[in-house]
User: Fold these one by one.
Assistant:
Number 1:
Amino acid sequence: MKRIVTLQDISCVGRCSITVALPVISAMGVECGILPTAVLSNHTMFKHFTCKDLSDQIEPISDVWETEGISFDGIYTGYLASAEQCGQVCRFFERFSGNGNLTLVDPAMADNGRLYQAFGEDFPAAMAEVCKKADVILPNITEASLLTGMPYRTEYDEAYIRELLERLLELGCGTAALTGVSYEPDKLGVAYLDRNGKEFSYFTKKCTQSYHGTGDLYASTVLGGLMRGLELGDALALAADFVVACIEATAGSKEPRWYGVEFESQIPLLCRMLEERLGEKE
Ligand code: PXL
């Protein structure tokens, strides 16, 4: 069985980061190790939250893993607590990547044109250094504009997306996959470009309601798919279909959208979709 490690926070309530990555990646048949970078009462979109930074644990934990000879088939990073922590995560990559393992960076730091409230202006440059180490990065358009310095646009054409992708590759990553791309009012999707010039895009229907944590759900599903041997395009498409199913399953919920999507009820569907697509590959 493949083993990955994910470096992101534990938000105890609110279905994001590790509380999404662990169940989803495990359900997909991949062992999911964790390196918690911070513990929060809940994520930062709630009105109140506590946050205990665990940066001082990254190095000692890494030391023990190295002593034990523990290795990972994949390393996946999400929300990181500070610019300094981005530096520590870069060192983690230096120690644990290589030997053909896969590094996936979701530069979770911004949405809808704005940096998350916990971050200062220096954060995107620090996250760009993490992206440099990645085989695959998965920013949304806001994050891509902050990483590249390109203007953030809500109205755009294919040339804008292509330029964003090219500029993202200049950061040094192997493949840039951009989420939240929409050329038609009722369609939403993902587009990627790799260093060999390979392009791909996939669109689903656009859901009317948006929920917190769906970016984390998306990235976790992509990682699970890749670890099970799906091609990147197939993993991106599977993750998009799964997130849509989760959003639809949540439509009847009376809870506020920052509680996230009810992905738990859709895990059997995810397993079926994964096996189906693995079967198609054979
Ligand atoms: O879903 C991204 C995320 C993860 N973790 C924490 C967050 C956020 C987004 O706001 O606050 C703590």
Number 2:
Amino acid sequence: MERLTDIGNIRDILSRHGFTFSKALGQNFLINPSVCPRMADAAVQGVPTDASVGVLEIGPGIGVLTNELLQRADRVVAVELDKRLLPVLDETLAEYDNLKVINADILDLDLHKLIAEEFGGMDVVVCANLPYYITSPVIMKLLEEKLPIRSVTVMVQKEAAVRLCAEPGTRDSSAITAAVRYYCDPELLFHVSAGSFMPAPKVDSAVIRLQLHEPSVHPKNEKTLFKVIKGSFAQRRKTVLNSLSSSLSLDKQKMRDILETAGVQENARAERLTLQDFSNIADALEETE
Ligand code: SAM
């Protein structure tokens, strides 16, 4: 269907289906015609040309991004929580036979199973205009579960994009910046204004792409690494010594010794530490436990 970003057309489809937007489900649909082709191009970029491409989309809405993905991929599986949108998608994407829509909450799905069953032998990427209320849990689920996916290309709130793609050691970096870098190379691709959506959200957005890679450091215990990252940023204005000893409930002298073993200055701030520093602290902590 050609005119899925046309406001008159969208209103017509939605009113015929008696659909009203749900704020709780983060329903801001794209109406800027230039955004979805760019997102879909970015999503499949990097997949070898001789490979079959499978795309997992989260929250297809009325199918505006799905439509672009279907033209570039061999198969698209779209997971939509709002069952009122299923008959809408049946209508807007009727011409495609390489689409499956699953009515489910993305956070509840066994994605290893889904990918094995739906995309056997394909190169798989994820693409979505994410519902903003679940940005972090969705991204962490996609990364932590170590899924066989090549990349994640998603629209998120501008502030989240800046945090997720911040360079370590800069003011914008946070616990999620460090955690994300463990799994992937993040890249902010382009900004999208609030007026590109219906209804318009209060904030601007940006499209980011996460290219997955093997973990870039090798801590003895991954869980301890994430505990250390979280604990270091818990009180980011404090020194890493103070923030970690209070969040891990460790005696200050013991924490000082751990930092010394890890080769990390006790008065450093979390945002200045590299992933290797966090990994060294985690290993030193493991040795004392
Ligand atoms: N892709 C469409 C677009 O760009 O216009 C819609 C994007 S809208 C920001 C987010 C979509 O995610 C909505 O269709 C919403 O119903 C769906 N959604 C919200 N929570 C979800 C969840 N937990 N699992 C799957 N889909 C969800």
